[in-house]
Amino acid sequence: MLNPSLSFKRPEADLSILELLSQDFPNVDAAIAELARLAAVQTLPRSAVHVISDIHGEDKKLQHVINNASGTLRPLVEEMFADRMTDDEMSEFLTLTFYPAEVTRRLQQTLRQPEEVRAYAYRMLQPQLELLRDLVSNFSLQLATKLFPVEYSELLLEMLHAPSIERGPEFIDAMLDELVHRGRALHLIHLLGRTIRNLAVDELIIGGDCWDRGPRGDLVVDYLRLQPNVAFIWGNHDMLWLGASLGNEALICTVLRVSLRYRRLGQLDEGYSVPLTPLEHLARTVYADDPAEFFMPKRSGMRPVEVVARMQKAAAVMQFKLEGQLIERNPQWDLDHRRLLHRINHQHGTIEIDGQIFDLRDKRFPTVDPENPYELTEEESACLARLKHSFLSSQKLQEQMRFMVGHGSMYLRRDECLIFHGCVPVDANGNFLPLTVDGKPIAGRELFEGIETVVRRAVERSEEDDLDFLWYLWSGPRSPLFGKDRIATFERDFIEDKTPHRETKDPYFSLIHTVEFCDRVLEEFAVESSDGLIVNGHVPVKVEAGESPLKRSGKAITIDGAFSEAYGDYGYTLVLEPSRIVLAEHHHFESVDAAIRDGIDIVPKVQEIRIFNQLRRTRDTERGQRIRYQIEMLERLIDAYLTNRLHERSANVSKPYHR
User: Fold this and answer.
1) DSSP label of 152
2) Please, where are the H alpha helices in 394-463?
3) What are its GO biological-process terms (predicted)?
4) pLDDT of res. 164
């Protein structure tokens, strides 16, 4: 509580801010002590930042990549213990480090006697504590202890300081004996393993696209929510699912179509409690005689393949109708040429696209009225109403979307890296192209920040204009998250001729091979251009074809490494370390069971992107900049105390001292 005698000698607004700060630092000594601590923290090596993009629903692979810290934990463990562990012991310890919960859960079934538990715990605790000490040394103690399990925080601090002349082995033995007696030894080992993993990566940045293609986007976000420090860069697939969760009907149908195409239905019915019964009923009635041969799903499953194909086609046709309505009510986007249903000649089985006539390979449109092609039938409306209700009522879906938006943004700067998902829309000469947001044409960095405003507002208000804008972010030509002139879904589904399938990329993707353009982008986003690096995902690097993620300019890198099995089953993590920036290339991951049973690991292939002449310190990072602001405020607080503009108070003793 503030000192009631605290008063200002003059009405300074700045003193109101300092008064709030004085609650934590009530006198000169407290402020000086914190200032000294922060000055010391600035000298520590910068903490590791890991950037992963385009996960696309591959939850098991993501879990392992996070658990092994994108391959960075293994070499550290090998370096520390290679001369003290056999190969089998090393494999056992690494498996425990990567999967502490799963390993200890199995051990609870196999280690029946207390002496067996104690022997295992004593053998594992020593290297765990040594590894923990090494990782903690890179953090301020205040920050590191925030990652400790709350109930065991003081115990872990005691254990970390145990090796000393005064504290013999009996100090740890006494702790361990009590934990074994109380049945908590394996639990502590589990918590230590989780803490080690959390300390190995200071910040995890997801570069966009958590959903689609892979099996369980819901489990991807579930696992990310468990991480202590995670940030999202939004991708176009994230906007697709966000818009669907908020009730945009075109995006609901798109989510359904994509999920059916890749037969990834578990995330809908099991993950988000969105039953597909209404769509299946539509497929079994209105589309009952439709072969839907060009809508066959890419995988098998419990539902008959023909039924899933008809469900996908039904969802696709509703999507095209609803997109046509959406484009018509947003003429400012100039997308009328993408309204295609009224361009079908049902008599001749053709369609006109961009002034050319193409034959349709599928001429069955049982729900399309040529006179009113964008109007839903009664059956479609009933189906969509039930599906929309399920999306809006899914508590888990709503919670995950708020988490993603609350921890997300359109771009981030981390030291010399500018990170975003797709592109900066430009013309062929590299000039930033505007997009109208809230009635104002904006481009470049201003566009990214304007989009953030609309996305956050959409979550709070769910107004039609904002939800329509989420659709544009999913597939609009000047969306920084999409970066192509069109998404040719209709053409790929209904036209054999591949000519209209072409989707032209934004010039950005060719211009990032030039230094001059990269420097222009970096400067636009206030990143030092001399050592700057543009980092984006979105466009998969064709690893098997020999493509390089690092562009010819040396100043841009694409980290979409086809993480999903549907794209290639590789994947990248960009790792920002104190002495270098490296790209870790991952490969196929079998399963968690195989990793625990056989010690299988994803050992990435590492490519160095930047090597620094000097070790990067905390003071060189965004965290260092924030600390400088904090130091400045503490200096002003000290001055206010010394000039008697604020009154000092005694520090409150929060707890009694015990030996």
Assistant:
1) G
2) 395-406, 444-461
3) gluconeogenesis
4) 61
What integer pLDDT is reported at residue 10 of this predicted model? 57
Comparing CA positions, the residue from 287, 343, 344 lying closest to residue 312 is 287
d(CA 207, CA 68) in angstroms, rounded, equals 19
User: Helices 622-642 and 28-41: crossing angle, nearest 10°?
Assistant: 160
Report how many helices (DSSP H) and strands (DSSP E) the chain contains, helices first. 26, 16
- Helical spans, DSSP H, in 161-216: 169-181, 185-200
Q: How far is CA 186 from CA 131, 190, 406, 464, 512, in A?
A: 18, 6, 35, 53, 51
Cα maximum dimension of the chain? 94
356-359 vs 435-437, strand pairing mode: unpaired
Query: What is the token pair recorded at 491?
Result: 């053409």
| Whole-angstrom distance, CA of residue 375 vs CA of residue 321 | 7
**Pairing between strand 440-442 and 411-414?**
unpaired
Beta-bridged to residue 633, according to DSSP, are none
> Residue 539 CB: number of other CB atoms within 10 A?
16
- Fill in the amino acid letter for 401: M
Domain ranges of the chain: 19-44+617-654, 49-207+559-616, 246-395
List, in sequence order, every beta strand (DSSP E) within 318-371.
344-345, 350-353, 356-359
Which range in 15-24, 298-307, 371-380 is most confidently predicted, on average pLDDT? 371-380
Residue 242, judged by CB atoms within 10 A of its CB (0-12, 13-18, 19+), counts as buried
Which run of H or E residues covers position 52?
Answer: strand 49-52
Beta strands 533-536 and 556-558 are: parallel
Q: Which two tokens stand for residue 93?
A: 């310890």
Measuring CA to CA, which residue among 322, 315, 329 is closest to residue 261? 315
Residues 361, 231: Cα–Cα separation, whole Å = 44
User: Where in 489-597 does DSSP place strands (E)?
Assistant: 533-536, 556-558, 572-576, 580-585
What are the tens digits of pLDDT across the range 302-338?
899 999 999 999 999 999 999 999 999 999 999 999 9
Residue 101: count other Cβ atoms within 10 Å of its Cβ. 12
Query: Which pLDDT band, with edges at 50, 70 and 90, does 657 fall under?
Result: very low
What is the identity of the amino acid at 391?
F
Q: What is the DSSP string of 10-29?
A: S--HHHHHHHHHHTT--SHH
Let me know: does 318 contact 253? Beta carbons within 8 Å.
Answer: yes
pTM as predicted: 0.91
